[in-house]
């Protein structure tokens, strides 16, 4: 963040700043991890009160998408939530600038993830792609991460790495930035990543104002990841 | 937490422990704050893989409930999410043990909140009520908080206090416990509260295992609230 701040404070940038994005999309699939999308989206909801933003919620069909998985139902739980998509892959606007990809146990379903992977591989023109948790495994399957640095959920790290060995998987990181692609560690790490991304795009002052409003204590250091040791990735 | 842990470790408790709850409800209303519900629910989703839990999502009707408010639309944003209820107030099961009440800008809508307030005032038998953010303002309007200690969102604290002066509002607290009623500070504070509540009910080991899986760094001290100073409540 400090290098970004200092470069932005220079009086004569080498090129004028690009316009901030307004068109943000998010992918849903059955068995998505709720906080993977609702953490970043809650912060962006607050940001949408400060600057005009448009959200597209993408899924294979317009049917409500559930967090439910057999991990809960198999022990007798009936405990899930459903979120409504706004567009299908077929009706997705072609001018999205940002796409957020969540993870969750549903990423293990080859059939439903296959559609996401094809969509990701074919969709062009995105200025940023942000993944939370095992969302990076979906992105890895699409080939978009080949030769790039990325991280993922640390408890599931071995499984994620096995999805594509052409990715430079970073075993200890709260989040990783490689060009236009930001990947975060598991679940709650998506909150730290989205604040860092907002700081990068809209400035640190805006990011901190949102975090103060959300009463969230940020981890601003992408290398500060206590869950790498906890789950044995290092 | 330490007093709870030590009392549970005594060989001869004064009375046998009560059964852990299984029936959990959550209230929705237009303009709810997304993370207020999705923070606690994401943790409970993980818990529902360890112990059988049943979720009821309550709203006035079965129509999808949106996070949208004029704070976003008035500046040209189109950025919201909709969650599906499972029951209406009229069809609510009568054996809920736990109810979670979110906050959000929708708590300012007297008409929609009026229905919630009546429901809260009439629903009996709950073993726990947990509010996040300005959800405590709804609870305060129902009279349930009269004479009790409670906290709320710190940026909106003056407005919350004005809803009911018979509540002992705590100006600096991440969360407050008064008997069966748990109230948290704003938005992200609901995560720290739900982990503390799970530690109280299912034990600290379970709570920490869930936090490690969710890669969430807990604030375990209910008095550690840096946003009280930030928003001038103390």
TrEMBL record, chains A, B:
<dbReference type="InterPro" id="IPR002818">
    <property type="entry name" value="DJ-1/PfpI"/>
</dbReference>
<dbReference type="Pfam" id="PF01965">
    <property type="entry name" value="DJ-1_PfpI"/>
</dbReference>
<protein>
    <submittedName>
        <fullName>DJ-1/PfpI family protein-like protein</fullName>
    </submittedName>
</protein>
<feature type="domain" description="DJ-1/PfpI">
    <location>
        <begin position="23"/>
        <end position="197"/>
    </location>
</feature>
<dbReference type="InterPro" id="IPR052158">
    <property type="entry name" value="INH-QAR"/>
</dbReference>
<dbReference type="InterPro" id="IPR029062">
    <property type="entry name" value="Class_I_gatase-like"/>
</dbReference>
């Amino acid at each position: 963040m400090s290098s970004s701040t200092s470069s932005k404070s220079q009086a004569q940038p080498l090129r004028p700043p690009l316009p901030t994005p307004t068109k943000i999309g998010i992918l849903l699939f059955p068995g998505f991890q709720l906080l993977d999308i609702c953490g970043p989206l809650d912060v962006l909801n607050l940001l949408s009160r400060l600057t005009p933003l448009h959200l597209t919620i993408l899924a294979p069909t317009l049917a409500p998408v559930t967090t439910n998985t057999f991990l809960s139902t198999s022990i007798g739980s009936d405990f899930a939530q459903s979120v409504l998509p706004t567009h299908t892959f077929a009706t997705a606007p072609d001018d999205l600038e940002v796409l957020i990809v969540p993870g969750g146990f549903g990423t293990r379903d080859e059939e439903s993830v296959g559609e996401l992977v094809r969509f990701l591989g074919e969709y062009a023109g995105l200025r940023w792609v942000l993944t939370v948790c095992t969302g990076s495994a979906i992105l890895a399957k699409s080939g978009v991460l080949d030769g790039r640095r990325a991280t993922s959920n640390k408890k599931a790290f071995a499984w994620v790495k096995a999805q594509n060995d052409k990715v430079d998987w970073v075993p200890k990181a709260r989040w990783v930035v490689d060009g236009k692609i930001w990947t975060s560690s598991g679940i709650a790490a998506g909150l730290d990543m989205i604040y860092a991304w907002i700081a990068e795009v809209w400035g640190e002052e805006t990011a901190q104002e949102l975090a103060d409003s959300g009463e969230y204590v940020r981890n601003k250091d992408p290398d500060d990841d206590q869950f790498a040791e906890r789950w044995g990735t290092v």
